[in-house]
Amino acid sequence: MRADRNQRAPLALKIAATAGLLFLHLPILLIFVYAFTTEDKSYAWPPPGFTTKWFAVTWNRPDVWQALTLSVKVASISTAVALVLGTLCAAAVSQTKFFGRETISLLVILPIALPGIITGIALRSAFSIAEIPFSTWTIVLGHATFCVVVVYNNAVARFRRTSASLVEASMDLGADGFQTFRYVILPNIGTALLAGGMLAFALSFDEVIVTTFTAGQQQTLPIWMLEELVRPRQRPVTNVVAMVVVLVTFLPILAAFYLTRDGDQIAGSGK
């Protein structure tokens, strides 16, 4: 078994893997390059020159700040809602047995499996029927539908790997429900919740399709970028903003990966 693990991958597999990675990530590198170009109306290659002036231009654009503020606000609230609802759903499904448990689990994860345009149309129709005006809260409701799923998947997996004997021992020693949650359950599921929250924030921050149907006249940062590409004005500004989106979404995902890669070391998981 150890000898098999030490075998080197075939050259063809290495070439295919490298080609796949380049295909995925070269376009992202081009976004970074065009953020420094001196050309403001087209994406000529190679860029005629390089400058950092577009960072100052972006900094002084009030529409960029308005869109960024709205995106951060929506992502933060959606993540908070997802952490509460996702954790409660995960605890109910993993720690108790009741009729229809698997059906409820399916219904919870269904929104992330549905195409975003279906979710968007459904939400827009519901808001219209209920005569709910479009606002920040309608965007939050739309984003929460899939953010809950991310938190739920992380939490339910961790709950199932946490031994029920820990909770029973805590109760036997006189701890009440809150003390058991704070000192026993939360330390075991904390990293899973943090990772789920980070992933939920990243998904909400760069969401486009559902936002299009629930935002009305408001513009989150991805919607602002889309409209800037349709009606170009200072194209490199869009690339500077795209760099921000890449960093804001990449860092939480990277942190979530490092937080959950040692998730097999759960207290009581082997009992």
TrEMBL record:
GO terms for cellular component: plasma membrane. Belongs to the binding-protein-dependent transport system permease family. CysTW subfamily. Keywords: Cell membrane, Membrane, Transmembrane, Transmembrane helix, Transport. InterPro entries: Bact_Polyamine_Transport (IPR051789), MetI-like (IPR000515), MetI-like_sf (IPR035906). Signal peptide: none annotated. Its main location: membrane. Residues 68-256 form the ABC transmembrane type-1 domain. CDD domains: TM_PBP2. It comes from the Bacteria. This is ABC transporter permease. The chain crosses the membrane at residues 12-36, 74-94, 106-127, 139-159, 180-203, 240-259. It is a multi-pass membrane protein. It is found in: Cell membrane. GO terms for biological process: transmembrane transport. It holds the Pfam family BPD_transp_1.
